[in-house]
Amino acid sequence: MESTQQQMNVPITPERSQNGFAPTALERHYSVSELSKLWFFSENTIRRLFSREPGVIKITRQATRVKRGYTSLRIPERIAQRVHQRLQGLS
Description:
β2 (57-61) and β3 (70-76) form a beta hairpin. This protein is an alpha+beta fold. It is globular. It has helices spanning 2-9, 32-39, 43-50, 77-88, and strands spanning 29-31, 57-61, 70-76. The chain is 40% helix and 16% strand. It has a three-stranded antiparallel β-sheet with strand order 1-3-2. The longest helix is centred in the last third of the chain and has 12 residues, at 77-88.
């Protein structure tokens, strides 16, 4: 009983979940616009860098006869860091 109370008093933060791993869903996700402002690149450059990157969330709406198709990207922080290191030549 006492160990259960101790476990319940330990806060679960985005850095550590109950199993010791960071929960990906709670990780910071950047929009194309946010990353373009942080990295001083155009939005088109950010889209080109991340469009085929594994782990990027793509939300698409199919084109109809009236409306064009649209794809929205959400880029997890760990993916942004990985690409940034690759661009610096560190990986």
